[in-house]
Design brief:
With 339 residues, the protein is an alpha+beta fold. It folds into four domains: 94 residues, Orthogonal Bundle (Arc Repressor Mutant, subunit A); 36 residues, no CATH class; 76 residues, SH3 type barrels, CATH 2.30.30; 91 residues, no CATH class. It has eleven helices and 13 strands. The protein has a five-stranded antiparallel beta sheet, covered by helices on one side. A four-stranded antiparallel beta sheet has the order 11-12-10-13. Helix 3 crosses helix 4, helix 6 runs antiparallel to helix 7 and helix 10 packs across helix 11. It is elongated. It starts with a helix and ends with a helix. InterPro entries: CBASS_pafABC_assoc_protein, PafC-like, PafC_HTH, WCX_dom, WYL_dom. This is WYL domain-containing protein. Pfam families: HTH_PafC (PF19187), WCX (PF25583), WYL (PF13280).
C-alpha cells in the first residue's frame, strides 16, 4: 500500500495521478473522499493530500504572479467538516483542444461500426465513449449512419458458426474466379490487413483452409456440430506454399520488400537500379494482380512472360473501365505490369 499512500509515489506518477484526479472531480461535481479513494484504489489520506495540493495550483496571469482567480479553489467548509470535495473554481481546463464537429462525427461513425460487431454488441464502454464524443465536441456532430455491407453480414454469420461450433455451408469464388459450394467446420476468424478470413476444415479438400469472407456468399449455418480438430495446427493467415506453386521474378522497392516476405522463395536478391530482384512463390499468376495493385509502382513483374501477360491484361481492363483507348502488344505488357 506504499504506492497508494503517496510516500512511495514518484513525481511522474504523482503528476499522472493529479492529471486524472482533476477531471474526475470536475465531472463528479460533488464527491466524498471515501468514494474518490475507492475509485482510484488509494487510501483516503492520498486523496486529501492531493486535493490540498490542487488548491495551491493554478496558472499565473500576464504579470507572472498569482491573483485570486488564477488558482483552483475548493469548498473548504465541505472538505474540512464533511470530507466532501467540491471544486468551486478551476483554471486552464477549459483551454484544452476540443474535437471539431467533423472529427467527432468521423469517430462516432467508426464506433457505431464497431458496435455492430458481435463481440462489441451492447458494450457499455463504447456507449460511454459515444456519449462523451457527442458532449465534448466543439459543435454538434453530424448524424452519420453506417450501412452494413454484404461482407459484414457474412462475417457475422461466420462468427456465429465459430461461436456455436456448427458447420457452415457457402458458395465460394476463389482468386481464379472458380466457384463452388463448400461445407466446412469453422474454427477461427482472423484478419490480414483489411481482409477477414475464416479458417476452417474443408470437407471437400479434407484439410484446413483459409477462406476470404468477401468471396463467400449464400452462407447457411447448419445444425451439424463440427468435428474434433483440436490436434490440427492452424496456420498463420497469409500465403501458404504448396507443391503446385509457381515461381515469379519481380523487381521490388527496398521499402516494400518486408511486405512481400511471406512470398519469397529464397533469401537471394540482386540489386538492380536501386531495386531488388527476387523470386516469389505464388499459387497462380492471377494472384499477382492483387499483390501488384496493393503495392502500386513498387513491384514490377519481370518473368515469366505468362505472369507479365496476366498482370498486363488485368491492368488494361482496369484502364478501359475509365474510357481510355485499349492498347495491345509487348509495350503494353512492359508498362502495365508496373501499376
Amino acid at each position: 500500500m506504499a504506492e497508494a499512500s503517496g510516500r512511495g509515489r514518484k513525481a511522474p506518477d504523482q503528476l499522472v495521478f493529479l492529471l486524472a484526479l482533476v477531471p474526475y472531480l470536475l465531472e463528479q461535481r460533488v464527491v466524498d473522499v471515501a468514494t474518490a479513494a475507492e475509485h482510484f484504489d488509494v487510501d483516503e489520506k492520498t486523496i486529501r493530500d492531493a486535493v490540498t495540493l490542487i488548491a495551491t495550483s493554478g496558472l499565473p496571469g500576464e504579470t507572472g504572479t498569482y491573483q485570486a482567480n488564477d488558482l483552483f479553489d475548493i469548498d473548504w467548509g465541505s472538505f474540512e467538516d464533511d470530507d466532501v470535495i467540491v471544486i468551486v473554481h478551476h483554471v486552464a481546463i477549459d483551454d484544452t483542444p476540443r474535437l471539431s464537429a467533423r472529427e467527432a462525427a468521423a469517430l462516432i461513425a467508426g464506433l457505431q461500426y464497431l458496435s455492430a460487431s458481435p463481440e462489441s454488441a451492447g458494450s457499455a464502454h463504447l456507449q460511454t465513449l459515444l456519449a462523451k464524443l457527442n458532449a465534448g465536441a466543439s459543435a454538434e456532430p453530424s448524424r452519420l449512419a453506417v450501412e452494413e455491407s454484404e461482407t459484414d453480414a457474412a462475417l457475422a454469420l461466420a462468427r456465429s458458426a465459430v461461436a456455436d461450433g456448427r458447420q457452415l455451408e457457402f458458395d465460394y469464388r476463389n482468386a481464379l474466379g472458380v466457384a463452388g459450394r463448400r461445407r466446412v467446420d469453422p474454427l477461427r476468424i482472423a484478419s490480414l490487413g483489411v481482409d477477414w478470413y475464416l479458417q476452417a476444415y474443408c470437407h471437400t479438400r479434407e484439410d484446413v483452409r483459409s477462406f476470404r469472407v468477401d468471396r463467400m456468399s449464400g452462407l447457411v449455418v447448419s445444425d451439424e456440430p463440427i468435428g474434433d480438430h483440436s490436434e490440427r495446427a492452424l496456420p498463420e493467415v497469409g500465403y501458404q506454399g504448396s507443391v503446385s506453386d509457381q515461381d515469379v521474378v519481380v523487381d521490388v522497392s527496398p521499402d516494400a520488400l518486408p511486405l512481400i516476405a511471406d512470398y519469397l522463395a529464397d533469401a537471394e536478391r540482386e540489386e538492380i537500379d536501386g531495386r531488388f530482384r527476387v523470386r516469389l512463390r505464388v499459387a497462380h499468376f492471377h494472384g499477382l494482380k492483387r499483390l501488384v495493385s496493393g503495392l502500386p509502382g513498387l513491384v514490377t513483374v519481370v518473368a515469366p512472360a505468362e505472369a507479365q501477360y496476366v498482370v498486363a491484361e488485368w491492368a488494361a481492363a482496369g484502364l478501359a473501365a475509365y474510357g481510355e483507348p485499349e492498347r495491345s502488344g509487348a509495350s503494353e505488357a512492359s508498362e502495365a505490369d508496373e501499376h
